[in-house]
Amino acid sequence: MRLGILTGGGDCPGTNGVIRALVRRVSERHGTPVTGFLDAWDGVIEGRAIALEAEDVRGILPRGGTILGTRRGSPFDHPDGPVLVRQALDSQGLDALVVVGGNGSLTVASMLADDHGLPVVGVPKTIDNDIEGTDECFGFDTALQIATDAIDRLHTTAESHDRIMVIEVMGRDAGWIALHAGIAGSATAILVPEVAFDIARVAELVARRHARGRYASVVVVAEGATPVEGTMSVPDRPVDRHGHRVYRGLAAAVAAELSARTGYEARVTLLGHVQRGGTPTAHDRVLATRLGLAAADLAEGGGAGRMVSVRGADIGSEPMSVTRGRTRTIDLGLLDGVTAALLG
Ligand code: F6P
Questions:
Q1: C-alpha of residue 11 to centroid of ligand 1, in Å
Q2: Interstrand relation of 189-191 and 306-311 (parallel, antiparallel or unpaired)
Q3: Which residues share a beta bridge with 166?
C-alpha cells in the first residue's frame, strides 16, 4: 500500500499530528514510506515530493504549521490539472492520495475523485470549524483558546481605562471562533457573519452597560461579519490571486462607530494569524491523531471520494461532496440564548 499526502489551504495547528499518525500507521502495517507532496498542489503538479518514514515524523506532534508546506490554489487552475495529478500519482506508484484541507481543498479533492475517478480521500482541516459533514475540525480548539486568552487580557486593560475594546477574530463565513471565544471570554457583544448586525443596537448595549457602572466592554467581531445594509460602511474586501477574499479591518470601523455613538474611547485588536500559529492544544493533538489514523484506514479501504469526519464522540467518514459550496454555520439558538441571558 503506497499513500501520498498533501496539506492545502490555510495552515492549521494539528496538521503535523495528522501527517505523523498516517505515516506511522502505514509504516507499521506495510513498511512503506508515505509520499509527502510539498506546497500542496504545486508539489503534485511540479513533481516535488519527499518520502516520509516513521523517523521523519518524530517530534512533530506539538509543532504548529505543516512540515509539508501549504499553498492556496488548485490543480483546476491548470488546463490539464486532473491529468497531471493522475500522472503524479502513477509516477510515485501511489494507491491513494490523502488531501488535508479546508472547504476549498476538499471541494477540489471531491471533484478529482467523483468527476475524474482519482483515488483521493480527505481530512477536514480549518481553524474556522466551518466544514460541512463533520462536527468539529482540528485547529479550532487551539484558535479558540488563543482568542479566549486575548479577550481575558483585554478585560483588565479595558477596565483600567473604561474603554471599549473591539477584537477581530478569524471566521469569514461562519462565526465559530467569535461565538465560542465571546462566550468563554464573557464579551459584551458578538458579531458573526451569519447575522447582519445593527451597530446602533450594539452601541446601545455598550452605553447601557457603562451607564450601569460596568467599566469596559469587549466586542468580538468575526472578520466576515456584515452590518445591516446602509447602517455603516465596511472596509474593502479584495480578492487575492487565488480568488480568495481577504477580510481585514472591520473591527476598526466598528470601534470608530461605537466611539462616535457612545462617547467612550475605543481600541482595536486584530488577532490575525496569531490564531493559527504555534503549538496545538492537547485536544487538537488527540483529534488530529485520530483523524490521521482513520485517514490511513479510509484510503486503504478504497474510500475514494470520502473524508474522515467527527460524529459525536466517534470518527467516521462522509462523502467529500457534502462540502462542495457549503459552510457549516454556528448554532444561532446558542447565539440568541447568550445574547439574551449573558451578554451586555
Ligand atoms: O483558513 C481559514 C482562515 O484562517 C480564515 O479564517 C482567514 O480569513 C484566512 O484563513 C486567512 O488566510 P490567509 O492565510 O491567506 O491570509
A1: 8
A2: unpaired
A3: 219, 268
Whose CA is closest to atom 12 on ligand 1?
A: 10
- If you take atom 9 of ligand 1, which residue's CA is the nearest one? 10
Cell numbers found for residue 287: 483529534
pLDDT-based confidence at residue 213 (cuts at 50, 70, 90): confident
The full length of the chain comes to 344
Q: What does the block give as the cell for 241?
A: 490571486
Is residue 314 within a helix (H) or strand (E), and if so which, with residue range? strand 314-319
Residue 240 is a catalytic residue:
no
Please give the backbone phi and psi of residue 106, each rounded to the nearest 5 degrees, phi first: -70, -30
Distance from Cα 283 to the centre of ligand 1, integer Å: 21
Looking at the CA of residue 72, tell me the nearest atom of ligand 1: 15
Q: In this predicted structure, what is the pLDDT of residue 341?
A: 79
Question: Could you tell me the sign of the dihedral formed by the alpha carbons of 217, 144, 135, 282, in that order?
Answer: negative
Q: Which of 42, 95, 115, 128 is catalytic?
A: 128
| Domains and their CATH numbers in the chain | 3-139+280-323 (3.40.50.450), 141-277 (3.40.50.460)
CB of 7 closer than 8 Å to CB of 101? yes
Q: Is the CB of 275 under 6 A from ligand 1?
A: no
102 in contact with ligand 1, CB cutoff 6 A: yes
The 10s digit of each residue's pLDDT in 2-35 is 999 999 999 999 999 999 999 999 999 999 999 9
Mutate to test the pocket of ligand 1, among 7, 66, 128 (most ligand atoms within 8 A of CB): 128
CA distances from 233 to 57, 203, 206 (A): 48, 16, 20
Q: Residue ranges of the alpha helices (H) in the chain? A: 15-30, 41-46, 81-91, 103-114, 140-161, 176-184, 199-211, 250-262, 282-300, 332-341
pTM score, two decimals? 0.96
Query: By three-state DSSP, how is residue 102 classified?
Result: coil
